[in-house]
């Protein structure tokens, strides 16, 4: 398993390097399915303003990783550029106001991770009317987006679903001996629909889904309440697994099961984002797995796309594909997600520099880290 994961990481890295190398050329043949064209006329030598809009701060990745990594890449590519940053705190109306303010301040390109993909179409249309290209980051917004970078989101759900199914089937166990609970992401997030579809493509017909929820705002508190409802409806002894779409909601589901008096080990719980708390729960045995999406390659591609869009270059890469957002086919780079369990933490999040062993193995996690060979 760890060999396959390392291979996936190598393939992703190779694609990224090839993509960035070609992207800077401002043209070239579209060999693998698509290229993006922007009409900006800004000049890197003079510097310009770049808008960066992220959706929320409940998920720790955005402020801890995405924001600083994107800003660092933009600073590397355009040292004289100024990055204007705002976080919408899961409020689409607030994000609309933030975008309008940035356009008023004269940004030449916008990197947008939308709270609500459909509602964000108004932001994209407004930007286009002012000849400001938009790079859709992590979630694909509606409207005439110039470029899109994310992970293969359906694949994320498939990775989660397969990991859960494999664990439920381990040692010849019947994966239909009880019920699983599915706690999906926000209904306003198009990625959540992809995660859900991917998971269902693996799990449907092979497990019993006792209860399923779409969770507004990806709220861990709401996920805990949903898990409480599921336990009451299904019965504690019938719950054998939990599909949680991200680590925050996994934490809510785990808190619910502990509060309901589940014994140890808990039923396996999936997650996503490789949050530090999620990785520590994996080390301690409370959470079964998470999905690691290496944010630096995503941030690097977004930065390159933004500079190319602002300066009127074509972003063309061997790893580019096309994704339709209901308005147009958008030139997109989709990176590969990786499953993380206790057995490969060293080969994934630690090896990639996402966390150090010291960050993971603090306090109560020192002993389970030692037992897992993490040091």
UniProtKB/TrEMBL annotation:
It is found in: Cell envelope. Residues 50-313 form the Periplasmic binding protein domain. The keyword Heme does not apply. InterPro entries: Bact_Solute-Bind_Prot2 (IPR050555), Peripla_BP_I (IPR028082), SBP_2_dom (IPR025997). One of its GO terms (cellular component) is outer membrane-bounded periplasmic space. Gene3D superfamilies: 3.40.50.2300. Residues 1-23 form the signal peptide. Keywords: Signal. This is D-xylose transport system substrate-binding protein. It comes from Micromonospora pisi.
């Amino acid at each position: 398993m760890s060999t396959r994961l390392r291979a996936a990481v190598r393939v992703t890295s190779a694609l990224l390097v090839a993509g960035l190398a070609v992207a800077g050329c401002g043209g070239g043949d579209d060999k693998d399915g698509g290229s993006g064209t922007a009409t900006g006329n800004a000049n890197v030598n003079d510097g310009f303003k770049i808008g960066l809009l992220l959706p929320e701060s409940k998920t720790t990745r955005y402020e801890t990783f995405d924001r600083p990594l994107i800003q660092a890449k933009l600073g590397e590519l355009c040292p004289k550029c100024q990055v204007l940053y705002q976080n919408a705190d899961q409020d689409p109306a607030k994000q609309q106001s933030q975008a309008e303010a940035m356009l008023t301040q004269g940004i030449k390109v916008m990197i947008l991770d939308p709270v609500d993909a459909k509602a964000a179409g108004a932001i994209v249309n407004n930007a286009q009317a002012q000849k400001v290209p938009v790079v859709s980051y992590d979630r694909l917004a509606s409207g005439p987006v110039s470029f899109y970078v994310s992970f293969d989101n359906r694949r994320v759900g498939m990775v989660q679903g397969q990991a859960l199914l494999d664990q439920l089937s381990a040692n010849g166990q019947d994966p239909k001996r009880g019920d699983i609970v599915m706690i999906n992401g926000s209904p306003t997030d198009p990625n959540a629909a992809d995660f859900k579809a991917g998971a269902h493509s693996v799990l449907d017909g092979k497990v019993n889904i006792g209860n399923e929820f779409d969770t507004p705002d990806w709220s861990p508190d709401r996920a805990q309440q949903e898990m409480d409802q599921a336990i009451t409806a299904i019965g504690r002894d019938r719950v054998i697994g939990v599909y949680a779409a991200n680590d925050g909601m996994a934490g809510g589901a785990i808190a619910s099961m502990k509060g309901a008096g589940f014994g140890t080990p808990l039923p396996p719980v999936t997650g996503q984002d490789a949050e530090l708390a999620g990785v520590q729960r994996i080390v301690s045995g409370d959470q079964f797995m998470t999905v690691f999406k290496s944010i630096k390659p995503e941030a690097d591609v977004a930065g390159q796309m933004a500079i190319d869009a602002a300066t009127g270059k074509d972003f063309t890469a061997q790893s580019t594909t096309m994704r339709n957002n209901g308005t147009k086919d958008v030139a997109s780079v989709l990176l590969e997600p990786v499953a993380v369990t206790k057995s490969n933490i060293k080969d994934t999040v630690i090896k990639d520099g996402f966390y150090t062993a010291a960050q993971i193995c603090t306090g109560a996690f020192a002993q389970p880290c030692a037992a897992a060979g993490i040091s």
